Amino acid sequence: MRGWTAADIPDQTGRRAIVTGANSGIGFHTALQLARHGAEVVLACRSPERGRKALDRIKAEAPDATVILGSLDLADLASVREFASAHGDRPLDLLINNAGVMALPRRTTADGFEMQFGTNHLGHFALTGLLLPSLRDAEAPRVVTVTSGFAWTGRIRFDDLHGERRYRKWEAYAQSKLANLLFTRELDRRVPEVTAVAAHPGYASTNLQQTGPRMEGSRIMERGAGLLNALVAQPASAGALPTLYAATAPGVAGGACFGPRLLQYRGAPTEVVAPPRARRPELAARLWEVSEALTGVHYEIPAKD
Fold this sequence. Notes:
By secondary structure, the protein is α/β, with parallel strands linked by helices. Helices cover 43% and strands 14% of the residues. It contains ten helices and eight strands. The chain has an eight-stranded mixed sheet with strand order 3-2-1-4-5-6-7-8, with helices on both faces. β1, α1 and β2 form a beta-alpha-beta unit. α4 (115-137) runs parallel beside α5 (169-190), α4 (115-137) packs across α10 and α6 packs antiparallel against α7 (219-231). It is globular and about 50 Å long.
């Protein structure tokens, strides 16, 4: 049986979407397909140069699309607030929390957070909260947060969230990706007006795999990651399909997670099982409270019963 593809995306005319990290990889292909199917798309990018190149590529492939470039650095809460102020003045149908960093040497954000936790989770937590009024103004809003299979090994280390006592880059990445799932479930629980879902791309060829080795100055590891991408990974266009399914398919249930069908590794998108830790409501509630305290962004929404 033929699996779900980008050709199955329903008409998105009249819908407005924001895609973080839309200049490359999963984010680019997500933005491209939404634009091709009629959505107005804001490319939320940290690099103006790479963002402009992505916008030009999308316009070349979808000349009639409405595509806007926005400046967003998720590792700087001041930038997050500026972006939300600039792009939160109209109803928002889709927020795709896609941008992320992976397995970096220890770095901190502008606000002093460990870079992976600060970018992958806290930046998106703040962005979603600041855009919540615009989401609530839309008819059937969805928030899709991109996680990873590494969430299965993740633990939320509340006693050392920022790796100040011990930092291991893959543990920090897994923590941030588990946080994405916990955030999704708690957002869906607390904000009934918004359908919050998660998605992960399986093993897809993007620049994430090579960024960490490049920052460490390891040319051997960088080349090795590139070789694995070429030989083993599915293309980024295929890796974007779970995100696109979560964002556009009819009947998607809040709190669900979507990934590739074949062992959550590759293939057509389907609903997948989340790790047991991601299904612990007390853990999600605690992370939410900590995230509000760290970011200063408070969701003024009563919790569901």
